[in-house]
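Reopening this one. Same input as before:
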Amino acid sequence: MIRRIFGFSVERPKLVILLTLIVTCFFLWQFPKIRTDTDPKHMLPTTSPVRVYNDEVDRLFSLHADTIVLGISNKEGIINPNTLKKIALITESVLKIKGVITQDVLSLSTVNDVIVKEDGLQVRPSLDKIPETKDELAFMKKALYDNPMLVDRFISKDGNTSAIYIPIEPAANGKAIADLIRKILKDLGPPEEYYLAGDPIARDTFGAQMFMQMGLFSPISGMVMCIALFLMFRNYTLVFTNMGVAMISILWSLGLLIGMGFPVHIMSSMMPVFLMAISTDTVHIFNEFYFRFREVKDKRKAVLETMNTIAKPVFYSDLTTAVGFASLATVTIVPVKVFGLFVAFGTFVILLMSYTFVPAILMVMKESAIQRALKREDIKEDKAKGMTWLVKLGSLSLSKRSAILKIGLILIVLSVIGVSRIHVNNNMVSWFKAKSEIRRSDKILNKELGGTSLAYFVLDSDKEDFIKEPSTLRYIEALQRQLEHNPLVGKTTSVADYVKHINRVLHQNDPKFEVIPDSKGEIAQYLFLMEMSARPNDLNNVVDYPFKRANIWIQLKSWDAGVMRKLIQTVQKYTLNHPLPEAKFKPAGIAYFNMVWNDEVLRGMISSFLASLILVLGLLIFEYRSLKWGIISFIPLLATIIIIYGMVGWIGKDFDMPIAVLSTLSLGMAIDFAIHFVSRFKQRCKETPNLEEALVWTVGRPGKGIMRNAILFALGFAVMMFASLTPYITVGIFMALIMALSSVATLIYLPALIVNFKKSLFFKGGE
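Same output, byte for byte:
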């Protein structure tokens, strides 16, 4: 079947090229329908329990998952007429922005404070008018600091920073709204400094930069690969062919993804670079064609002999690559699943192009152009004085095989120790560089105020008015104090804080009355007064009205998934040691979602990785019809992955989503080298029964294609090291390292293994 396909391409090259272009135009026609999505909620299916429960909590307590935090800082203190006027002006201007949920914007000029009037409680904004005199400023400062619910949320302990909390509609773009806010801030002038942070800004800014980065680095990657290809083959047609295969696979894959209605996410945005790198597998065809043409001097015969020789290893190398990517379909992270399946499709497109488009282009090439390129091609015979460096490398791997195997074993042992030190964590803010505006703003606001990441613990009971019980409120308060022992918990707020503050206000603002009353009736009265006087959402955010449920707000000073995990452990331990009858606590909020997503990434990647290991090994065993040959071929790749991830553990790099995904992807991609090596080695053994001679030949001739492939692959990813987003930098560095190490391990370690275990392999005439 395969021979018929490339045979047809050799006989009808122009027709094959025309059909390829027609199909490509069809997929290109889908691109105007493109949609993007960077919402972390969509990482999990809509039926995911964490999504369902988070949405339920948001509805129950009138919460908004998407909230922008605007920090206003003045080193001389914010409690001065000029800064306070700016806070009021900014708040007023923000309320006019489309997409902002105006009724829930909170700042000093909108957040309520409770005071006592003759007819009872009165709730008014903390900044209902701008104080002008020293006495008015002093009165306001005292009022702010007398209300614990305002400190660390709306004003820092040192009085230098305030915050405005801006909830936005789910469909609104956080970056676009942030840009409008920046325009408002631009005209205000010094001495205040402004900081914008929060999940919507990080998410949507990342989304915007994601496409900018891929729009920039995809062509740069292609250009670098074009230059490298030309230096390797000195032929513009071959450069065009390789890049043509890359572009066809990219257009077909993205066109299919868009046409099927899938949005482009962070993972699928990286498809072009991956497919561009995978397409370098065609280098093996070009490499062998140059050798064959030099030997037979006939283009048609050289193409057919090349395809007959290369077809099988190309098939299995692309198949294992596709399997590695397709195994991502087993994970629950939706964008990762989509990415894996469509890159697998793109890999099959590359395989199809290897059998059709590539031989067709080779057939329409002018022989004179090939001859000119060959004159520049450094092809030397295996002579004592003219040995190529690859032949020398092959000889070295055999003569020093004992030392090579021992060094490899030591590296693997050290790497296994490194793997045991890996720390699993996801932090979307850390996906920006340390000096970026978002990272800097988040760091400053987390330092000055309670924190930009939100978590909730919901107390759930079936008993009506359960929350009005003094014992319940004291339990909530005690749990808050327990949570605050964690240094990354900046502030907690609950219905208990409201009750305590009302109690204090009704007792002449005496601090000793900042406690939970002993009477359920008194608590009920306080809550009723608050309901009658305040905005509905003041209490809606922390309690439901049958008073069966209560919500503890927790502001975190870090977006690390591990922080939320420690809080859950704290709550579990506390409730175990101090049981609360008829009630239980459940976590929620964006911090909890990120933790669940982080765990799903880990579990999904581990299961996908194990599935890939089994599938790829199974394919190797099937290809060689030998368990031992399959295992031997698999060892260099496995060693490469262990060494790379050992390095991750030793340098302290978090095992985050980009790193986790690479574990599976690298299996399918880096195994290509071993497949080409062993397949060509076994072919050579049928011609040359001498084991060591066949190995040296394989390192010197097919090895040249392996090195070329690895160099192109590494260069294609290496350009991403200059990106402004750390996931792309991570992918660039680690994929380049994986390819480089895998190729070196294949050319040095694999020959040493084959010779060392030749008796176990029942080596006889190449079988």
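So the earlier flakiness isn't reproducible anymore. For the record, The longest helix spans residues 199-233.
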